[in-house]
Design brief:
By secondary structure, this protein is an alpha/beta fold. Helix content is 45%, strand content 12%. α9 packs parallel to α12.
Length: 336
């Protein structure tokens, strides 16, 4: 595998001094609007664009001092991009929030007024796409998604900007992705997705992946809830197995879990010796601040972020000390 000098330069801008991606994520749109509406006790249409942007600016201003980069969305996040620390790189989302729920298969779509060229002109160091994916859905559904990612990969390759692909698993039969039954299926979903999108035709530079187990169902984990889908040793072996199938560097996403659960998941990755290259951590860092913002305003939000938010992101930073530089998978020296 080879990377161009342009892509290496952008990836270096997203990494810490160790060549590890220690990034914050604040590209949530539909889920953030829903959370703010719920905390305020109002319909979602009463959550204004100014409120969305204000929340994102506060998160970016405070937390990017402790992050190598931040992921934002072009819809509400451009003021937050301008408010980030100078040392922090920028990723921008290219996809519409959510998915098409009028057809089966959770099909994705792109923001209609954007292109990779325009994202690059906005100052981004990388393009991020989120796709809902499972190797076990209908082959016609997955073929649509494969073609979708091939097109975006080609666009990123032409414009010489790194492509970060985030895939989130689901149950095509409609099962609960946070439940026990799905926890047993999750390793195969994660590994199958990593194998698929590591193929060269997609031109993905960094895989943004879920941890291969649900820590709440790992016997002996600090967040174990009493029903075991795997022993701790089985979980560690699944981390190793997932890392072995990765043809491209990969980073872990927090997937909406709390800080305690995400940090425990990262501790297991370290214990397993998983060859991962960092994190893109969103709600695990800041989601508990939403009620603070809705009840007390932006100044209280900034105060919370400066205290608990910084503690949360530093707990993640401490937990990723075992992460390996992304350059290793590409055979690139640290001086490149």
């Amino acid at each position: 595998m080879q990377l161009s000098e342009a892509k290496i330069k952008h990836l270096n801008a997203l990494s810490n001094k160790n060549g590890v991606i220690a990034a914050a994520a604040m590209d949530q749109r539909g889920s953030l609007r829903k959370s703010i509406a719920s905390a305020k006790g109002v319909p979602q249409d009463q959550v204004t664009a100014d409120m969305m942007s204000e929340f994102k600016v506060a998160v970016s201003k405070v937390l990017t001092k402790h992050a190598s980069a931040i992921l934002l969305d072009p819809e509400f996040g451009i003021p937050a991009a301008k408010a980030r620390a100078k040392s922090s790189g920028l990723l921008l989302a290219y996809e519409e929030s959510g998915y098409d729920n009028t057809k089966p298969g959770r099909l994705p779509d792109l923001l209609p007024h954007l292109s990779v060229k325009r994202i690059k002109e906005l100052g981004a160091d990388a393009v991020k796409i989120l796709i809902y994916y499972t190797p076990f859905d209908n082959s016609d559904v997955n073929d649509i998604k494969h073609a979708f990612i091939e097109r975006i990969g080609a666009e990123c390759e032409y414009h010489q900007i790194p492509f970060f692909l985030e895939f989130v698993g689901y149950d095509p039969q409609g099962g609960d992705e946070k439940g026990f039954d799905y926890a047993k299926k999750k390793p195969d979903v994660v590994m199958g997705s990593m194998q698929e999108f590591g193929k060269p035709q997609y031109h993905v530079d960094i895989l943004k992946v879920e941890v291969p187990v649900n820590a709440e169902f790992v016997q002996g984990s600090s967040v174990f809830k009493g029903q075991a889908a795997y022993t701790r040793e089985q979980a560690l072996q699944l981390y190793r197995k997932a890392a072995e199938v990765a043809e491209k560097p990969f980073i872990y996403l927090s997937a909406g879990v709390g800080n305690e659960q995400f940090v425990e998941s990262l501790h297991m990755a370290a214990e397993a010796g998983a060859d991962y290259s960092g994190v893109l951590c969103g709600r695990a860092t800041w989601k508990d601040a939403v009620p603070v913002y809705t009840k007390q305003g932006v100044k209280a939000l900034e105060d919370w972020l400066s205290d608990q938010g910084v503690k949360n992101i530093n707990a993640v930073n401490d937990a990723i000390k075992s992460a390996k530089p992304w350059r290793g998978k590409y055979g690139i020296s640290a001086s490149a």
